[in-house]
Amino acid sequence: MTNNNNSGQGQGTEVPAEIKGWNWGAFLLQWIWGLGNKSYKTFMIYIPIAGIAFFFINGAKGNEWAWQNRKWESIEHFKKVQRKWTRAGLAVLGGMFMLFFAMSFLLMGIFNKSEVYEMSISNIVHTEKFIDKVGEPYESGMITGSIQSSNSNGSAELNYTVEGPNGSVDVYVVGEKIVGKWIVTSQVIHYSDEDENEVIVSTDTQ
Hints:
alpha+beta, single chain, Nuclear Transport Factor 2, Chain: A, six-stranded antiparallel beta sheet
């Protein structure tokens, strides 16, 4: 360490200008980064309501806290370690995005193969109104909602949009599984060029 290295001397210590600025490691990893850099103020993210602001405060103050709370060999050493924290934070963020997309594709596969979805879309795609206002070929967009099912009973709520060369239609469907068979109990459709919704009810279990 050089004689002018004042790192690790606590709160109020002057921070070198070279390291002032945003710390992505502190922002992305929050208290995990805080443990590694002896900066325990990062735990303030758990304060109700006010904790939201600390997500950004930690990023803005991270370099200052890390320099003041921990001994560093040099400014270069400090920067090198903080770059590693940034890479670790980006890796975690990337992993979370990959997990999110994987779960989304998994759910889409489950929804697309569900009986409730198949029955609900079958109720509309062969009607004259659908052919006129949506047309063919058509494509169903992302399906959102939930499906809960046991051996003989269950419930489902799905929402999706079907698009074609002439327009689109939004579909909201509620289904029930009764004694092992699914039925559509309520189906609301809204064509893009209409103001009112249309309600379709079906008990077709095929």
